[in-house]
């Protein structure tokens, strides 16, 4: 199938490109490089042995998107392009509504104009908000507690209306839990610009010596060891989930919201302990107060993905840490 990946040079888009290319799909990648580097394209070409089509451009450029959709006879779009910092979404909300919501509307308008009706949207577990019960299933009420989460929920709602009005569209909104890890080659992985906000990239930079220690944001939660617990999912499992979703939208019309998680929560200390084994070095840590806006624990009920997509995550926490460390060590010339 001919597939456009918006945000295709980003963390999740690049790993998904590898899996889809290996399955024989024809890919076109679009990215404005606001949070990625051109070097990722070279790495993708090395891993896949292909010369992937790439456009430097913005999803808000409707004319460009229409042109790409027509030129490459695109049959499905995977919409990864978006901004994802919870903190920045609070301090600069209009940037997030413009990029994530207006950007999505522009993309869907371009698709509608040229009759491309299959879409996978990168949503987030953040749409659920404070758990009323766990694990979160897809019918759990949605009430995001930050601007970033609201942008994701608004796009889901737009897509629900679009699907209601156009029953021949096929849409999957994939609600990712906490993607971590890297491709087994160590060539691509998560490359945040500046100081990382998220746990795994921060731990990687402590292990490589770029940062002195990890701040543990709270050890007094009502969780098994007092630290926050999350459903970490290996990015290659997530990438395979997208391939399964492409097959699903090819067969079915309508819209589905689907969790992509493992269903297994791990604490901050679980992750640090596993990472220390991967890197054979100690991770300095300092316990700090709780980070504002953090939830103590959440994780996915992963049954819907198994039933509808025939997909479930298979890679464990140790592999997530091993692959993250391999990528970081190669990046820093440590191996
Ligand atoms: P990422 O920042 O690594 O990748 C996003 C890519 O989109 C980047 O390469 C960026 O340059 C590009 N981009 C952003 N705005 C664009 C625009 N207007 N036009 C063209 N390109 C644009 O992030 P990621 O971790 O790969 O996340 C991909 C998607 O998944 C995002 O929509 C994100 O919100 C969502 N998501 C991520 C996580 C996570 O923890 N990584 C969790 C849930 C959902
Ligand atoms: N944590 C630390 N120290 C750090 C960073 C994080 O102790 O330096 C802790 C947090 O308090 C939390 C856990 O590690 O308990 C995970 O935090 P992350 O920042 O890695 O991930 P979050 O669950 O807060 O959020 C992430 C993304 C969101 C996305 C969500 C999906 O940042 O964009 O996962 O579930 F929506």
Task: Please provide a written account of the structure.
The protein is α/β, with parallel strands linked by helices and 335 residues long. Helix content is 41%, strand content 17%. Helix 7 (199-207) packs parallel to helix 9 (268-279) and helix 9 (268-279) crosses helix 11. Strand 2 (26-31), helix 2 (39-48) and strand 3 (53-56) form a beta-alpha-beta unit. The mean pLDDT is 97. Strands 3-2-1-4-5-6-11 form a 7-stranded parallel β-sheet, sandwiched between helices. The chain has a two-stranded parallel ribbon with strand order 7-10. It folds into 2 domains: 2-182 and 232-263 and 302-315, NAD(P)-binding Rossmann-like Domain (Rossmann fold), CATH 3.40.50.720; 199-228 and 264-298 and 319-331, Alpha-Beta Complex (UDP-galactose 4-epimerase, domain 1). The longest helix has 21 residues, at 93-113. It contains 11 helices and 13 strands. The site of uridine-5'-diphosphate-4-deoxy-4-fluoro-alpha-D-galactose has 20 residues, from helix 7 and strand 8.
Short description:
The chain is an alpha/beta fold and 335 residues long. 41% of the residues lie in helices and 17% in strands.
Determine Rg (CA atoms, Å): 19 Å
Task: List the strand order in the largest sheet.
Answer: 3-2-1-4-5-6-11
- Number of strand segments: 13
Q: What ligand species are in this complex?
A: nicotinamide-adenine-dinucleotide, uridine-5'-diphosphate-4-deoxy-4-fluoro-alpha-D-galactose
What do we call the CATH homologous superfamily of the largest domain? NAD(P)-binding Rossmann-like Domain
Largest sheet: 7 strands, parallel
Low-pLDDT ranges: none
**How would the global form be characterised?**
globular
Distance between the termini: 38 Å
Please name the CATH architecture of the largest domain. 3-Layer(aba) Sandwich
Q: From the structure provided, what is the oligomeric state, counting identical versus distinct chains?
A: single chain
Please identify the top-level CATH class of the largest domain. Alpha Beta
Compressed to H and E, one letter per element, the order equals: EHEHEHEHHEHEEHEEEHEEHEHH
